[in-house]
Specification:
The complex is a heterodimer.
Chain A (H helix, E strand, L loop, with lengths): L6 H13 L9 E7 L2 E9 L4 E3 L1 H8 L14 H22 L2 H31 L20 E5 L2 E7 L1 H22 L3
Antiparallel strand pairs in A: 1-2, 1-5, 2-3, 4-5
Helix pairs in contact in A: 1-3, 1-5, 3-4, 4-5
Chain B lengths: L1 H23 L13 H5 L9 E6 L6 E6 L3 E6 L21 E2 L2 E2 L9 E5 L2 E11 L4 E6 L4 E7 L4 E5 L9 E8 L1 E2 L11 H4 E10 L6 E10 L2 E7 L7 E7 L8 H4 L5 E8 H9 L4 E13 L4 E14 L7 E7 L2 E6 L5 E6 L4 E6 H9 L3 E5 L2 E4 L1 H4 E6 L5 E6 L4 E6 L4 E6 L5 E6 L4 E5 L12 E6 L15 E7 L6 E8 L6 E5 H5 L24 E5 L2 E9 L2 E3 L2 E6 L3 E8 L8 E5 L7 E3 L4 E6 L5 E6 L12 E7 L8 E3 L3
Parallel strand pairs in B: 14-19, 37-40, 39-45
Antiparallel strand pairs in B: 1-2, 1-35, 2-3, 4-5, 6-7, 7-8, 8-9, 9-18, 10-11, 11-13, 12-13, 13-14, 15-16, 16-17, 17-20, 18-19, 21-22, 22-23, 23-26, 24-25, 27-28, 28-29, 29-30, 31-32, 32-33, 33-34, 36-37, 37-38, 39-46, 40-43, 41-42, 41-44, 44-45
Classes of the chains: A alpha+beta, B mainly beta.
Chain lengths: 191, 654
C-alpha cells in the first residue's frame, strides 16, 4: 500500500484535483422543464452554494399542483458543498504530493462516498418535493406524484422534466472517474 | 504512453456516457401537425374571396373581429362595447346612447362569446349576438351592415359570462351570472355571507323573429355558484339549456384554491318551456330594477336608450321541474351539445376525464327521481344515471368542444395545449394535435349547429410567445387554422387577431353575404337633422346650440365656410353623406374636437359635437380618402369670442 505512484499518475491526479476548482463557480446540476407553452424551456440550476435559473417561474407553476416553494434556505447542503469541493481539490493536491497508493485509495473512497451521498441526498429532496403536496391544491390527479427524475427525462403532466449534471458537475464527475481509473491502473499495472 | 491513452479513453468514454444519456433518453418532440401542402390550402389568390366568415370576439377589446378563412385575412373590426374613434362609434351623438347602462355611459367591456342567430338549429346569418362580461349586457350586430344595432343590459347579474347562447330558433338568447351576488336589501351584505345570501341569475331574452329586437322575458333566480358556459339543447333536447357551474364550494375568496376542492361541480339543466308555463301561471315575482335597453333605428340613424324599470323573476327552488343539477368533475368550463342534441359533454378544467351525458338518460333519471339529494333546493341527478360515458385520458385542462358532421367531437386542452378529436358514440380518442400555445375555446364552422359545416377547426389561443416577430412586452394575439377533413388533423395557418380571440363562430360566406347592404338609401333617411341634398344644408342657432346641417359629396362639404359661432357654443355637425354608391364613405374632423372623427357611410347622417374653446378660424376636413381631390375637401369655421354677437353666415363656393 505504500507503493509509490508513477509520476504520470501523480501529474494526472494533480490535474484532476485542480480541475475541480471551477466547479465552485458554475452550476453543478440542472433540471430542465419543457412544455408546449414553454418552448424555450425552464431551467433550474443547482450550484454548490445556491440555486439559480427560472426558480420564480417554476414556483409559480408548481403551486397549482401543491408543491412547496423552492427556497434557498431550505437547503443546508449549500453550507457544506463548497467546502466539500475545496476538500476534493486539496485532497487531490495532497495525494499527488505524497505520491503513495494508500492516499489514492483514500481519495477514491472519499470521492465515491461523496458522490453516493450526493445522489441519495438529491433523490431524497426530489422525493419529498414531489410527494409532499398541499392537500388543498387546485389540480389533484389521483395517484399522481411529481417527483422529478434523478437522472434523465420524465414526463410530469404537461411538462417534460430532465435532470442532468451541469458544467460544474462534469468538472467533478469526469476527474472523479479518472481518479477511479487511475487507481485501477495503479493496482493492475505489471511493475 | 499506451497506458495514458487508455486512461484518456476511459475519461472520454465516461463523458460520452453522460452526454449520451442526456440526449438519447429524451422523448422525441411532438409532431407539429403542419400540413405539407399548407400553403396551397390557405392561399386565396389576390382578387379571390375567402370561403368562410370567422367572427372572433375581441375579448378585452370589447369588439368583434371579422376574418376570412382559410386565408386568415382580417376584414373588419366591428365596434360593440367599446368606443371606437376610427368610426366615431360611441363618440357620435347617434351612437353614444348605445353605450348607456344603468351606471351611466359605459364605454368599455369585455366581449367573450359571439353567437350567430339560428333558424331550425342552423346559422341563418342575420344577426350576431355577443355578451359583455363586466357590466352585463348582450349586443346584437346586424350582419347586413356589420354594425351593432342593439344592446340590452342585464339587471340582477354579476358578470354575464355564460352568454349569449341561442336556442334553435332564437326563441331565447341566455345570459347567466358568472359572479353570484346578494339581492336582499339593496345588495348591501357582508361578503362573508356568500353561502346564505348570494344568488345567481339566468336571463332569458326573447328575440323578435322579424326585427331581432330583444327583451328580457324572465329571469331565473338560481343557487349562488359561478355559471361559466352554456349551450341550448337542440333537436332531441330542444326546450332545454345547459349551464356549467363551478365554485359549488361557494367560496368568496381565493377561488383558485377554494373553488377547486370538491371532486365534482355541476352541469345545470334548465327546462325553459317549463319555466314559461310557470311564467304564464303568474308565478313570477316583479322586481323593481333599472336597466338600459339601447336600440339603433335604421331609419333615423339614431340610437335611443330607454331605462327599463321592472323584471319578472322566477325562483327555481319554489318551482319544481325547471332546474336540475348533474354532478360534473371538476370546475367545468365548456358545456356542449352534440349535433343530435342527445349528448352533452362537459369539460372540467381540472378533470381527468370528459363526461358525456345522455339527454334521454337525464329525462329517465328525472322521471324515476333518481336523485342524490339537492343543492340549495335544486335536485341533483345521480352522476351515473345521467352519464353516457367518459372520454378517458383525453389530455390536461379540457375547456370546450365543438363537433363536425361525422360524429366527432373536438375538444381544446389549455394545459396540454392541444386539440383532441374523439368519437362521440364510442368515447375513443382518435387524434391529437398541438396548438401554439394554450388554446382556450375552439371553433368548427357551424360546429354547434344541427348540421355542422366542419372542414376546419380554429384554435383560439391565449399565448403566442415565439410564434411571431416580437412587439415589446405585449405580443400579438393569435388563432390557428387546422384542416379536419382527413383522419389526422393538420395545422394550416397561424394568424394574428385583435384583442383576445376568446371565442369565435364561423359559417360559409354565402349565409352572410345574402343579407348584404351596400349603402343606405337617402330616400329612407329619417334623421332629424339630415340634409338629403345641398339645398337643405344650413346652420341654425338655438340659444347656445348651433346645428350645422352639412352634406358631403366628392369632394366638398356644404357649407364649407361657417361664421357666427362663439366660444363655448355647442356646435353639432350633422353630416349627411350624399353618395349613393358602394364603398364611398366620407370622414369628418374639426380641429380641437375632444371626441373623435366621424366616418359617414353613403346615405348616412352622423353628428359630431364640438365645443370651441378659443376664438380663431378652425379648419375641418374629410379624413377618408374619397377621390382624387380628397385633399381639397376642406373648410373653415370662424369662432368669435364669447359675449360678442357675430352674424351667422354659411356658404360653399361663394
Amino acid at each position: 500500500m505504500m507503493k509509490p505512484l508513477k509520476t504520470i499518475t501523480r501529474i494526472l491526479i494533480l490535474l484532476c484535483g485542480l480541475a475541480m476548482i471551477p466547479a465552485n463557480y458554475v452550476s453543478v446540476w440542472q433540471i430542465q422543464l419543457e412544455a408546449p407553452q414553454y418552448p424555450e424551456g425552464l431551467k433550474m440550476e443547482i450550484w454548490s452554494h445556491k440555486i439559480a435559473g427560472d426558480i420564480d417561474k417554476i414556483n409559480g407553476l408548481n403551486h397549482y399542483i401543491g408543491m412547496s416553494l423552492i427556497k434557498e434556505e431550505n437547503f443546508p447542503e449549500f453550507k457544506i458543498m463548497p467546502w466539500m469541493i475545496w476538500g476534493f481539490v486539496l485532497l487531490g493536491v495532497l495525494t499527488a504530493a505524497v505520491g503513495k497508493k494508500f492516499m489514492l485509495w483514500i481519495y477514491t473512497t472519499v470521492l465515491v462516498a461523496s458522490g453516493a451521498w450526493g445522489m441519495y441526498d438529491f433523490w431524497h429532496w426530489e422525493y419529498e418535493y414531489g410527494h409532499n403536496l398541499d392537500p388543498h391544491a387546485a389540480i389533484k390527479i389521483p395517484g399522481m406524484a411529481y417527483q422529478p427524475p434523478l437522472f434523465g427525462w420524465k414526463e410530469l403532466l404537461n411538462f417534460l422534466a430532465g435532470s442532468f449534471p451541469d458544467v460544474g458537475g462534469y468538472l467533478i464527475i469526469v476527474p472523479a472517474f479518472l481518479v477511479v481509473a487511475l487507481l485501477m491502473f495503479e493496482t493492475f499495472r505489471k511493475k | 504512453m499506451k497506458r495514458l491513452s487508455i486512461l484518456t479513453l476511459t475519461g472520454v468514454v465516461t463523458s460520452l456516457f453522460f452526454f449520451g444519456a442526456l440526449s438519447s433518453c429524451k422523448p422525441p418532440k411532438k409532431d407539429s401537425g403542419l400540413s405539407a401542402d399548407a400553403a396551397s390550402k390557405v392561399y386565396v389568390a389576390p382578387g379571390k374571396k375567402d370561403e368562410i366568415y370567422l367572427f372572433t370576439s375581441g375579448g378585452f377589446s370589447g369588439q368583434i373581429g371579422v376574418y376570412g378563412l382559410p386565408s386568415g385575412r382580417m376584414l373588419k373590426q366591428v365596434p360593440v362595447f367599446s368606443q371606437d374613434a376610427e368610426t366615431g362609434y360611441g363618440f357620435s351623438e347617434e351612437t353614444k346612447p348605445m353605450l348607456m347602462t344603468s351606471h351611466g355611459f359605459t364605454p368599455w367591456d369585455d366581449s367573450h362569446h359571439p353567437q350567430l342567430s339560428r333558424t331550425e338549429g342552423q346559422d341563418d346569418g342575420r344577426w350576431l349576438f355577443i355578451n359583455a362580461n363586466n357590466t352585463p349586457r348582450i349586443a346584437r350586430i346586424d350582419l347586413g351592415v356589420f354594425k351593432t344595432r342593439e344592446i340590452i343590459e342585464l339587471p340582477n347579474c354579476g358578470g354575464n359570462h355564460a352568454s349569449p347562447f341561442t336556442t334553435q330558433n332564437n326563441e331565447y338568447v341566455v345570459g347567466a351570472s358568472r359572479f353570484s351576488v346578494p339581492y336582499d336589501k339593496d345588495g348591501d351584505q357582508e361578503i362573508a355571507s356568500y353561502k346564505d345570501k348570494f344568488k345567481g341569475t339566468i336571463s332569458f331574452i326573447k328575440v323578435d323573429k322579424e326585427t331581432g329586437r330583444m327583451g328580457i322575458n324572465f329571469q331565473l333566480l338560481v343557487p349562488g355558484v359561478d355559471y361559466d358556459l352554456s349551450r341550448a339543447g337542440k333537436a332531441a333536447s330542444h326546450g332545454w339549456v345547459f349551464f356549467s357551474c363551478y365554485n359549488s364550494e361557494k367560496a368568496h375568496t381565493l377561488l383558485e384554491v377554494n373553488a377547486s376542492q370538491r371532486d365534482k361541480d355541476f352541469i345545470m339543466a334548465v327546462n325553459w318551456k317549463k319555466a314559461e308555463e310557470y311564467l304564464s301561471q303568474g308565478k313570477g315575482m316583479k322586481w323593481p330594477t333599472n336597466y338600459a335597453h339601447n336600440v339603433y333605428d335604421e331609419a333615423t340613424h339614431t340610437a335611443t336608450s330607454t331605462m327599463m324599470k321592472e323584471v319578472t323573476v322566477l325562483d327555481v327552488k319554489d318551482l319544481p321541474g325547471v332546474c336540475y343539477f348533474i354532478p360534473c368533475p371538476k370546475s367545468p368550463h365548456g358545456c356542449d351539445v352534440d349535433p343530435t342534441g342527445e349528448y352533452i359533454c362537459a369539460s372540467g378544467k381540472l378533470a381527468a376525464v370528459i363526461p358525456v351525458y345522455s339527454f334521454s338518460k337525464i329525462q329517465k333519471a328525472i322521471e324515476a327521481k333518481n336523485f342524490d339529494g339537492d343543492f340549495d333546493g335544486v335536485p341533483v341527478i345521480k352522476y351515473e344515471a345521467a352519464l353516457d360515458g367518459e372520454v378517458e385520458k383525453p389530455g390536461l385542462g379540457p375547456l370546450h368542444t365543438e363537433f363536425d358532421n361525422e360524429g366527432h367531437g373536438y375538444t381544446s386542452f389549455f394545459v396540454s395545449s392541444e386539440i383532441v378529436k374523439w368519437d362521440v358514440k364510442t368515447k375513443q380518442v382518435l387524434d391529437r394535435v398541438p396548438t401554439y400555445y394554450s388554446i382556450g375555446h375552439l371553433c368548427v364552422p357551424m360546429g354547434d349547429n344541427i348540421k355542422p359545416f366542419g372542414k376546419y377547426v380554429i384554435a383560439l389561443n391565449k399565448i403566442t410567445k415565439d410564434r411571431y416577430l416580437p412587439t415589446g412586452p405585449e405580443l400579438t394575439q393569435s388563432a390557428q387554422l387546422y384542416d379536419i377533413t382527413g383522419e389526422k388533423m393538420k395545422l394550416l395557418l397561424d394568424f394574428p387577431t385583435i384583442g383576445e380571440p376568446h371565442y369565435a363562430q364561423a359559417c360559409p360566406a354565402e349565409i352572410i353575404t345574402k343579407h348584404e347592404v351596400k349603402f343606405y338609401k337617402l330616400a329612407d333617411n329619417k334623421h332629424k337633422y339630415a340634409a338629403t341634398n345641398e339645398k337643405e344644408a344650413k346652420v341654425v342657432r338655438e340659444g347656445n346650440n348651433v346645428h350645422v346641417y352639412m352634406t358631403s359629396i366628392r369632394s366638398h362639404f356644404t357649407p364649407d365656410n361657417i361664421e357666427g359661432v362663439k366660444v363655448g357654443d355647442n356646435v353639432y355637425f350633422h353630416v349627411t353623406n350624399l353618395e349613393q354608391d358602394w364603398d364611398v364613405p366620407h370622414g369628418f374632423a374639426v380641429k380641437g374636437a375632444n371626441n373623435s372623427e366621424l366616418l359617414i357611410l353613403p346615405g348616412e347622417t352622423s353628428t359630431l359635437k364640438w365645443v370651441p374653446d378659443r376664438p380663431g378660424v378652425f379648419p375641418m376636413y374629410c379624413t377618408d380618402f374619397c377621390s382624387a381631390l380628397h385633399q381639397e375637401m376642406q373648410g373653415y369655421v370662424r369662432v368669435s369670442p364669447a359675449g360678442t354677437n357675430p352674424a351667422l353666415k354659411f356658404s360653399t363656393g361663394e
